[in-house]
Amino acid sequence: MNARPEKLVVVGAGSWGTTFAKVLADSAIERGVVEPEIVLWARRPEVAEDITARKRNTDYLPDIDLPACLSATTDLAEAVAGAGLVVLAIPAQEVRGHLPTIRAHLDPAAVVVSLVKGLERGTDARMSELCAEELGLPDERFAVVSGPNLALEIARQEPTATVVASADPATAEWIAVRTSGPYFRPYTNTDVTGVEICGVVKNVIALAVGICDGLGYGDNSKASVITRGLAETARLVESLGGQAETLAGLAGLGDLVATCASPLSRNRTAGRHLGQGLSVEEATARLKQTAEGMKSVSAVVDLARRHGVEMPISEAMNAVIAGALDVDTLAGLLLARDLKPEGRS
Ligand SMILES: NC(=O)C1=CN([C@@H]2O[C@H](COP(=O)(O)OP(=O)(O)OC[C@H]3O[C@@H](n4cnc5c(N)ncnc54)[C@H](O)[C@@H]3O)[C@@H](O)[C@H]2O)C=CC1
Ligand SMILES: O=C(CO)COP(=O)(O)O
């Protein structure tokens, strides 16, 4: 196999992409790498200029100083060329459109990492499936990084753990070394499907928790939604061949708790706005950033239905986002379901 280049690239200079590039840079500095090459691809020239010239991303991470070794470009081909690691950090619905350019310039030994917590609408594809299909990427060169990873807290260097999942443990370890640092601790596993699905569905559950907030419900309601949300996530993970242990880990319970508890979560915030009576359009406009749950929920329920998996909270969220269900009738609908024993089934 060709040697893997040490240039590291993040595609997407939003809040998580920029923070992840900082994680890579701080890890390289900590490990004593001489002149680390860490590049962000930004869609907008003013964002690239802000990062390269001022080491700031004012739009997405105001007040955060970025490492001196970070630079940014708007040229995706130039960014990807010669990189050993290509990290995808753009909204799920935008990924497919960028893959032909990435494929044309991808180093034959490069690893692709997805930070994306969404499914593609229309195909229900996970990012691992999209990359395999559109990049012709073998499983051992793909990984997903997911966990309780609210970008702003990590940008502020608050201690955080995450999961790096790849079918090939050596690939996961290679990435773990390059992300590990003074405030970021990756754990590795091989359950790509489980980690991806946990990250996607927790955004849908966070919408439901946000609606509880917006309606003025307290912690009992929210804990009930979180716990039953985890149960329906488990059913989908297992039906797709993922592992039950992943649910109890950082990418499962860890991320669900962080997102559903945090005022920083865009998905929870979007749900709160819906609960307070805003329309889907109004809630989306308020956010100005990606709330993957709103976009992916239809793909989640489609995937679940195709696999015969019951996901009542996701179904209800899908109906709310489609404008077919009023948030005021949500609780009654969920509570009126048939009585059954507690558990995953
Ligand atoms: N922000 C966070 O705390 C975390 C986010 N994620 C996931 O990371 C992914 C990226 O999220 P964020 O960086 O937070 O989003 P963001 O909303 O902060 O930024 C999105 C980025 O994608 C770019 N973008 C939007 N439309 C595009 C298009 N058509 N083509 C190319 N680029 C486009 C934007 O310019 C921006 O740079 C999402 O899937 C999200 O669920 C995962 C973990 C944590
Ligand atoms: O995925 C996240 C934390 O791990 C961020 O969640 P939001 O996209 O809801 O802000």
What composes the largest sheet?
8 strands, mixed
Order of helices and strands: EHEHEHEHEHEHEHEHHHHHHHHH
Mean pLDDT: 96
C-alpha Rg (nearest Å): 20 Å
Total domains: 2
From the spread of the alpha carbons, the general shape counts as globular
CATH secondary-structure class of the largest domain? Alpha Beta
CATH architecture of the largest domain: 3-Layer(aba) Sandwich
Number of helices: 16
The portion of residues assigned to helices is 40-55%
Residue share in β-strands: 5-15%
The CATH superfamily label of the largest domain reads NAD(P)-binding Rossmann-like Domain
Number of E-type strands: 8
**Overall SS class:** alpha/beta
Low-pLDDT runs of 5+ residues are none
N→C terminal distance = 45 Å
The CATH topology of the largest domain comes to Rossmann fold
Main sheet strand line-up: 3-2-1-4-5-6-7-8
Distinct ligand kinds: 1,4-dihydronicotinamide adenine dinucleotide, 1,3-dihydroxyacetonephosphate
EC number: 1.1.1.94
Subcellular location: Cytoplasm
InterPro entries: 6-PGluconate_DH-like_C_sf, 6PGD_dom2, G3P_DH_NAD-dep, G3P_DH_NAD-dep_C, G3P_DH_NAD-dep_N, NAD(P)-bd_dom_sf
Family: Belongs to the NAD-dependent glycerol-3-phosphate dehydrogenase family.
